[in-house]
Amino acid sequence: MVTSSVLFPRVESLSSSGINCIPKEYIRPQEELNNIGNVFEEVEKDGGPQVPTIDLMEIESEDKTVQDKCREELVRAAKDWGVMHLVNHGIPSDLIDRVRKAGQAFFDLPIEEKEKHANDQASGNVQGYGSKLANNASGQLEWEDYFFHLIFPEDKRDLSVWPKTPSDYTKVTSEYARLLRSLATKILSVLSLGLGLEEGRLEKEVGGMEELLLQMKINYYPRCPQPELALGVEAHTDISALTFILHNMVPGLQLFYEGKWVTAKCVPNSIVMHIGDTVEILSNGKYKSILHRGLVNKEKVRISWAVFCEPPKEKIILKPLTELVTEAEPPLFPPRTFAQHLQHKLFRKTQDSLVPRKAD
């Protein structure tokens, strides 16, 4: 999945080298190239479906009618889209700005400094600075570098791999993780009630406060000389329970909705939230884990901060909850651990890439 930059240069190095043509490993298959457009043109398009914006201001309102309306909108978005912009989410904007500045400062360091934090997938060390190495037979690469680390629970962190520069990186990221973990509880509670379950049911099913892991991946998408040929991240669904995303207000996120790619607009002071495969499985498909991808561009570096809320890999069997399975609605997913679900997705992806493509 990741490798030493000795074998594959960091994407940032390629971007800053002055190349006019990207290496063939980054060029997407023809069937994808047919629908990769200019992200700045795509995001300006009006009309057509738009990713919903959910205002969480009243999610715990004392007025039951107002509270119910807020919660119903969130549940509806989770069932229809599986992704939404959250506003008035309770995380201070100044803290979010500091998180973004800290991540930006790390990626502003010279590459040789960042390499001191390089991960080593071969030895199982996935935390740290890396770039995507193709894990499928087609040999495709993505136009991004990243920094990946576990940020919550605090007793499971390995602070030795965290950036030391800037000096406040650990402080601001830790505070953000604590607040995000509380937000995850609120969201899971509403989603539980939306299924007719007890408020704490989904949280319990994904590991609770002790076991649910928050993994942060800072995605760095450098300028690309041929953005119409590449993707920052290929089409996928998240395996997490929930994913929360900050970005630097440069567009790039696309969602596959009703058979078409929809470009998400940049909503100020929002956090993008995805429903992941884990919640889709538990809900027996009532909540959607939407297919999405990331476009790149020539003009601006795009950075996003994705936090994946993941259940423990082996301890919990993921399957549709018994209350949601009936004769009319049989289980849509077989029982698997989180680790098995991940392996199943990787295997399917590899198998798909081995299928010969039709000649163009």
TrEMBL record:
InterPro entries, per the entry: DIOX_N, IPNS-like_FE2OG_OXY, IPNS-like_sf, Oxoglu/Fe-dep_dioxygenase_dom, Plant_2OG-oxidoreductases
Names of the cofactor(s): L-ascorbate
Superkingdom as given in the UniProt entry: Eukaryota
Pfam family, one: 2OG-FeII_Oxy
GO process annotations (BP): flavonoid biosynthetic process; pigment biosynthetic process
Keyword terms of this UniProt record: Dioxygenase, Flavonoid biosynthesis, Iron, Metal-binding, Oxidoreductase, Vitamin C
Family: Belongs to the iron/ascorbate-dependent oxidoreductase family.
UniProt protein name: 2-OXOGLUTARATE (2OG) AND FE(II)-DEPENDENT OXYGENASE SUPERFAMILY PROTEIN-RELATED
Biological source species: Salix purpurea
